[in-house]
Amino acid sequence: MTEEEFWDALEYRVSHELRLMDNPQLQCLWCDGFIAERYETANAEPLIGGRTFICRGSEQKEWKFKLLLPERWDSAELIRWDTILPPDEMSGWISLDFRNRTLHLDPMSAANAEL
User: Fold this and answer.
1) Which range marks the domain in which residue 92 is found?
2) What is the number of structural domains in the chain?
3) Deepest in the core among 31, 38, 51, 88, taking most CB within 10 A?
4) CA–CA separation, 29 vs 48, rounded Å?
């Protein structure tokens, strides 16, 4: 998986995850893309940060995002993108901070979704 393919897939996975939320107010939200701006891949807590767009109907708002990475890489070019995205049957790995308009993504905290 390339980095570009990863960001496209993440957009759809986040939208899917929002539809699974218990709160009906959140179920109508969807994600319209990611712009990665900061790669902190070699830190003790590796992450990627940037901007995303969270939508409700046709209304789109810019949010910040923080994606926690499952391991450290010496550089962004070495990231194995296919190891980051949780499978479709996994859930519970995103949280939204409405006050600060920040989307937190922690793929390592994903668990089997209850059907």
Assistant:
1) 3-112
2) 1
3) 31
4) 22
